Amino acid sequence: MRRPQSENAVAVKPLWSHLFAAPNSNKTRLAPSFRAEKVTCPSSSGPACRGRRSSRDRLFIGFRQRLLHATTYVIDIVALGDAAFMTPGCESSWTMQSVLESTAVPKVVFDIRSQSNALFTRFGVRLGNIHEIQLMEVACRPTSRVYVSGLVKCVWTCPGLADADKQHWVSRKAHYRELCNPAYGGDDALLERRPIEPAVVDMCATNIESLPILWDTYKAQNGGLSMKRILTATRERIAASQASDYKTQGKHMTFAPPSLQVRRASFGRYR
Question: CA-to-CA distance for 181 and 49, rounded, in angstroms?
Answer without folding.
Answer: 5
